[in-house]
Amino acid sequence: MAGFRLRVTLSSDNWSHIPSFYPYPDTVPTEHHVRSFSPNHDHSPPRASSMRHHAASRRRNLCLLFTSFTLTFLTLLYTLANPALHGAGRLVEAGRTGLDEGLGLGLSRFDALHGDGGRLGVAGSGGWVHGMKEGLGSGLKGWLPTQKIGCWGWDPARPEDMDPKGCLRARQYRQVMRVLEREQRAEQATGVAEADRIHRSHWWFTNTYNIEVFQNVSRCFLPTHHDDYTPCPDKPLIISGWWYSAEVVSGGTSGEFKQIQSFGVNIACVGPYENWVEVAEMMPDVYRFIWNGDVDVVSCVTDPRCIAMEHYVPPHGAEDLSVGVPDEERGVIPIWMLQIVDYWGSRPKEMSNNDHYWGLKHDGDWSYQPLGQQWIATPWALPGHVHLPYSIEEYCLPLPVKPHEERNNTVLIFAKRSAYFHWPHVSPMQFWTDLAREPTFDLLSTCDVEDGYPLPDGLDTMGLQSREAYEELVGSVKVMLGMGAPMISPSVYSSLCQATPVVIPTFWEDYRTDGWDLFAGWSQHGPAALIGPPYVYSYYSKNYTSLLEAVEQARTTPIDRYIPEDMRLTYALKAMESYLSRDLYAMFQTVLSSNGGHVPRLIEGARERCYEIERCRAVFPEGRTPSTPENWQRQRETDRDRSGVMRVGDGSR
Q1: CA 469/CA 287 separation, integer angstroms
Q2: CA distance linking residue 153 with residue 166, whole number of Å
């Protein structure tokens, strides 16, 4: 036990007078000790009282040593039982080391992915993220809290039946390994037919990626003294059957995908429908939540062989499909674990085409996740939904801003399809012909010319461009001009980030801009229209003079680079951290309480319309049973007996 050290000057004679029972041999004596045993003090034979004093001191010191040993031993036991406090010399500290000093591990990991040598890093700068560190501050926590559950005697090398009873870490490891072995069998399968037999309609192009993901996740659940142990957040996996996740793996881009990974959470892309359901069934104690599109969630929620038996209720006015389904065939997917990610969100009938897609008969709010819109994430700040905003800084900030006077005197129309010019709500074809003839600038398009949809007379197109070529083009023109479609697009923000002003149409004069009206299509890209000049100019789609004046104002007014606050990486990361940290089960309980203790029903007609237009997945066939671990059902019952409440899909509680 090293004590407080006080530097003093001692001669060899001084040291010889230090008593042999001095209780702290690794500590330099204090001035008091030196003074007490210096040559200037009386060293005559000790008196009886002095002998008694020294005997008492010996007993006291022995007592202190025993107490110290006991406390050290107890501390060691506690450390071994708590993986967050040790790890064979690793510096774990709950996965947050360095975060509270200003930046946050989430951004540090993001920088590691995209810094020097990375595709998007800036040479010599340590990555573009370095320039943002000061702005982040200490608000971002980085990795989510690491798992703090330890198990005595847990050894993955032993047979599974020797795992400690009630050891969550062991259960999680075994579940991951079973799924990993499943993926490896599919990768080793000879021929498509055999792979499909193993994985049904498996996304073969995500197989190698998923193997790496499950290998990484398996290390989270090893004993903390294991050489391969890796500290991870609780529930470090998201299971995704969302098609866009698979696109990212096969070469696409997705900011939210990278942001999730920056928090130490892995994403397994195991679609389509039957595949992600089976994987979720196989590892109920591992995943944080399931991330899917609207159709897959509706398909599962309305199928008694998919959704947990405790959570199945037929939609309003619909047939109860659970009648006659044996308990052993009932689903196990918790309804509160089904999160949706969607570009458009659950929009009201009066402001969408959802009467066609979902059979809506009434105006007003609704949700294709029966628990509510808070289970739906979108890149736009839609009312009631979770806003996971775009962050354009990663791609845009490395691009140089070309001065206004060096740009081409060109106005670029952003529209991918020639069919857009034929839509009834956009400006008349003659407007574009007249605009192309204006003498003060050149008018350019990059749209694809589709059969039966010719471009307006006089308008030329360069054809569809690669992203790199398109971004370079945007940064070289003086104006980005919207013609009315698509209704909303991130292209506007990419343009502003390169200091290119934007002009967009409105289709209704004096329209409302609050709530859903902002996203109702009264203007192309309602949120951007609110930014206003000199960054964004608006024109009335049926007034050519309004169009020309807006273009000329934008063309002759230079601007600086502009990035909305809610599209900065710092904002996006904080939003993602909040999203990943939500207690979905507590939210579910709140919904139950507000609904009389019952699981809410899907809106009437939505399931039927989904099947009518062949969007929803077929219900699971008779005889199918969930692919849950053998002992999982028994563990669920044990948890229910202990707590009085069974939390479906979370055997740890």
Answers
A1: 39
A2: 12
CB 321 within 8 A of CB 608: no
Amino acid at 583: D
Burial of 191 (0-12, 13-18, 19+ CB in 10 A): exposed
Amino acid identity for residue 225 in this structure: H
In the chain, the domains with their CATH numbers are 12-73 (no CATH), 97-136 (no CATH), 163-391+576-642 (no CATH), 399-564 (3.40.50.2000)
Strands in 457-509 per DSSP E: 460-461, 479-482, 502-506
Question: Rounded to an integer, what distance in angstroms lies between the CA atom of residue 401 and that of residue 647?
Answer: 54
Q: Other C-beta atoms within 10 Å of 417: how many?
A: 16
Instruction: At 152, list the tokens.
Output: 């005595």
Residue closest to 413 by CA, chosen among 351, 361, 485: 485
C-beta of residue 628 within 8 angstroms of C-beta of residue 284: yes
- Contact (CB, 8 A) for 415 and 381: no
Alpha helices in 423-539, H assignment, sequence order: 429-436, 467-474, 491-497, 526-529
- Residue 515 to residues 364, 508, 519, Cα–Cα distance (Å): 12, 16, 8
Complete edge-to-edge strand list for the sheet that includes strand 460-461: 460-461, 442-445, 410-414, 479-482, 502-506, 536-540
Does the CA dihedral 313-319-320-321 come out positive or negative?
negative
Q: Which three-class secondary structure state does DSSP give residue 102?
A: coil
Helix (H) or strand (E) segment spanning residue 606: helix 606-612
In 3D, which of 201, 203, 242, 235 has the Cα closest to residue 339? 242
Taking alpha carbons only, the member of 115, 151, 154 closest to residue 132 is 115
CA 507, 511, 517, 519 dihedral sign is positive
C-alpha–C-alpha distance, residues 216 and 214, integer Å: 5
User: What confidence tens digit (pLDDT) does each residue in 254-301 have?
Assistant: 678 889 999 999 999 998 899 999 999 999 999 999 999 999 999 999
- Cβ-based neighbours of 224, under 8 Å, separated by 6 or more: 83, 86, 87, 88, 150
Partners of 338 in the β-ladder: 290
My answer on whether omega of the bond before 315 falls inside 30° of 0, hence cis, is no
Tens digits of residue pLDDT in 418-437: 999 999 999 999 999 999 99
Q: Which of 312, 246, 253, 237 is nearest to 273 (CA)?
A: 246
Q: 370 falls in which pLDDT band (50, 70, 90)?
A: very high
- The answer to whether the beta carbons of residues 511 and 541 sit under 8 Å apart is no
**Number of residues assigned to the chain:** 653
- Of residues 17 and 376, which shows the higher confidence score? 376
